[in-house]
Amino acid sequence: MAIISLDITNRSPFADGQSFGDVGPYQLLEGVAHFAADPLNPRNEAITDIELAPRDTDGKVRFSAHFSMLQSADPERGKHRILFDVVNRGGKTALSALNDAERAIDPAAPIKPGNGFLMRYGYTVVWCGWQADVPPTPGLMGLQAPEAIGPDGRPITGR
């Protein structure tokens, strides 16, 4: 499975440009990641109904997901390490767990740096949606999956 492109829809200073020790300020990037998966690759067998998804001209199944990334505004000052946060029902969790940041009730609220632990140590923090059933709520991260297609060429409904 490969990311084939990124559409960055927002690039902004993180935490109003606050500096995090020697690493300096961070930036927030947000957008959509586009993927292509080979339905014939044995590693992708665990993906439900991948064999029923429409394929592109290369035989790959395409899908997309929301992504967000916090990285040092000067990447040379970062640690060159990624902390990938597996979102929970579309919500970001790493900063509340590792930076003692207050978890926002509103998923569209700006991300808070908390004590800045991950940023002071230069980590790039990445979030990506992975669940197709996340409600389309601003601030939540979901995955946009293709519909399964039956032998008659129509979308499959039900279980």
Number of helices: 2
Rounded average pLDDT: 93
Rg from Cα = 18 Å
Structural class: mainly beta
Output the helix-strand order. Answer: EEEEEHHEE
Parts with pLDDT < 50 across at least 5 consecutive residues: none
| Total count of strands | 7
The outline comes out as elongated
Question: How does the SSE layout of this entry go?
Answer:
Blueprint: E1 2-13, E2 19-20, E3 24-37, E4 61-72, E5 82-86, H1 94-98, H2 117-120, E6 124-128, E7 143-144
Parallel strand pairs: 5-6
Antiparallel strand pairs: 1-3, 2-3, 3-4, 4-6, 4-7
Q: What would you say this structure looks like, in words?
A:
With 159 residues, the protein is mainly β. Helix content is 6%, strand content 33%. The protein contains 2 helices and 7 strands; from the N terminus they run βββββααββ. The chain has helices at residues 94-98, 117-120; strands spanning 2-13, 19-20, 24-37, 61-72, 82-86, 124-128, 143-144. Strands 1, 2, 3, 4, 5, 6 and 7 form a 7-stranded mixed sheet that branches. A hairpin with a 3-residue loop joins strand 2 and strand 3. It is elongated, with a radius of gyration of 18 Å.
